Amino acid sequence: PITPGELLCLGSSLAFSGLFYYLYRRKARVVARIQEAPKLQVDDNLPALVSATEGRCLPYVALEGIVLPAQAALTSHYHEGLQGVIQKLLLKEHRLIWNTLVRSW
């Protein structure tokens, strides 16, 4: 006979295994897309290529060459001589919509 505690452990083990497998598959797809990313040179043709793509966005691209920051390079507080640029910037806009049907007094 199987006790309720054993059933609970088995069910939670299956649920966690399914969750971790799902996360693994998502990350594996991203890694595959990164490995297949086209390699582009940083030159004058890059802005024209970006503007010609759908949505004006290249999801995964490996840039080869010297990448210069827009204003000043970011420097590390922990390692002397280590510099970098911002790789990704996410901007979210929150709008308030006035709806007269939802308004309550």
Automatic annotation (TrEMBL):
<dbReference type="GO" id="GO:0016874">
    <property type="term" value="F:ligase activity"/>
</dbReference>
<keyword id="KW-0472">Membrane</keyword>
<keyword id="KW-0436">Ligase</keyword>
<feature type="transmembrane region" description="Helical">
    <location>
        <begin position="6"/>
        <end position="24"/>
    </location>
</feature>
<keyword id="KW-0863">Zinc-finger</keyword>
<dbReference type="GO" id="GO:0016567">
    <property type="term" value="P:protein ubiquitination"/>
</dbReference>
<dbReference type="GO" id="GO:0008270">
    <property type="term" value="F:zinc ion binding"/>
</dbReference>
<dbReference type="InterPro" id="IPR051652">
    <property type="entry name" value="MDM2_MDM4_MUL1"/>
</dbReference>
<keyword id="KW-0862">Zinc</keyword>
<keyword id="KW-0479">Metal-binding</keyword>
<keyword id="KW-1133">Transmembrane helix</keyword>
<dbReference type="GO" id="GO:0004842">
    <property type="term" value="F:ubiquitin-protein transferase activity"/>
</dbReference>
<keyword id="KW-0812">Transmembrane</keyword>
<protein>
    <submittedName>
        <fullName>MUL1A ligase</fullName>
    </submittedName>
</protein>
